[in-house]
Each structure stands twice: as structure tokens, then as C-alpha cells.
Design brief:
- The structure is a single chain.
- The protein has 5 helices and 6 strands.
- The protein has 157 residues and is of the alpha/beta class.
- It has one domain: Lumazine/riboflavin synthase (Rossmann fold), CATH 3.40.50.960.
- It has a 4-stranded parallel beta sheet with strand order 2-1-3-4, with helices on both faces. Strands 5-6 form a two-stranded antiparallel ribbon.
- Strand 5 and strand 6 form a beta hairpin.
- The two termini are 17 Å apart.
């Protein structure tokens, strides 16, 4: 789902299936927590609106986006219908950004290919902090909300 051209304010929640009785694991990076906390808020808000019981959601925190892969792997060993990986990587002056983004996306892809539950990629990979702000509740909506919708849809496949 892309919100680069529209804001989620026009989202019709009636078009999103009910998530009643579904269970979700959420793995959140503590790095750039001012962004990841907003993504988590958007995610939890949508799940609540779609009737997910708060006891059917488990949130764990990992140090950074690189560690999301292991955290999601641990969550796949539990009884969740879907897992959401929340992170934020902002480009700096070195190639570290490229390595972290590539490793994290490849790791999550591999979990989707080999794991027993889908892992939703909610990792912002932005050129600057303003882009992250815009996508975590700013002018382009909240990618956490979009990730929750994707998790619901993937759970029902």
C-alpha cells in the first residue's frame, strides 16, 4: 500500500475486514523511537478499530531495525496470525544505511518464504527525518496503519 499520493484520512474502515479473534505479534525497533512509537500507535489504533482484543496483541522491542528479523523469527514460533515488523532507518553519511535496509528487507522476505505466519514490512527507509515524520502520522498518513491493514488481509488468506 502506498500513501505517497494520498492521505489515509479518506480510508473507509468498512472496506477493511474484521480482525476479531485474530492474533498479532508486533516487533518494534527502539532506534528512532520517536518515529517507531508513532508507527506502533497507528498500527494499534487500526487493530483496535477492527475489533482485535488487546490481549491478542503482543508487542516486543528490539534495539534496531537489523534485529527486527530475529524478533520476527521468535514471534513466528508463537501462535500469531500475522507479525508486523516496525522500524525506521534514516540515511546518514555512510553506507551503513544501505547494509541495514538490504539486510532487514531480505531477512523479512526470507521469513515470509519459510515461516508459518506472514511478516509485514513496516520499516521506513527515508532520506531524512522529515520524510519519516511525514509517513508516521504526518502529511502522508501513517504506515503503521497501512501495515495493520496488510496484516489483517494476509491473516485471512
Amino acid at each position: 500500500m502506498s500513501s505517497s499520493n494520498s492521505n489515509l484520512s479518506s480510508l473507509d474502515l468498512n472496506e477493511v475486514p474484521s480482525a476479531k479473534n485474530l492474533k498479532f505479534g508486533i516487533v518494534v525497533s527502539k532506534w528512532n523511537k520517536q518515529i517507531t512509537n508513532k508507527l506502533l500507535e497507528g498500527c494499534l489504533d487500526l487493530l483496535s478499530k477492527k475489533e482485535v482484543n488487546k490481549y491478542d496483541i503482543e508487542v516486543i522491542y528490539v534495539p534496531g531495525s537489523f534485529e527486527l528479523v530475529y524478533g520476527c523469527k521468535v514471534m513466528q514460533n508463537k501462535d500469531f496470525d500475522a507479525i508486523i515488523a516496525i522500524g525506521s532507518v534514516v540515511k546518514g553519511e555512510t553506507k551503513h544505511f544501505d547494509f541495514i535496509c538490504s539486510s532487514t528487507s531480505t531477512g523479512i522476505m526470507n521469513l515470509n518464504l519459510s515461516g508459518k505466519s506472514p511478516v509485514i514490512f513496516c520499516v521506513l527507509t527515508d532520506d531524512n527525518i522529515q520524510q519519516s515524520i511525514d509517513r508516521s502520522g504526518g502529511k502522508y498518513g501513517n504506515k503503521g496503519t497501512e501495515a495493520a491493514i496488510a496484516a489483517i488481509e494476509m491473516s485471512l488468506i
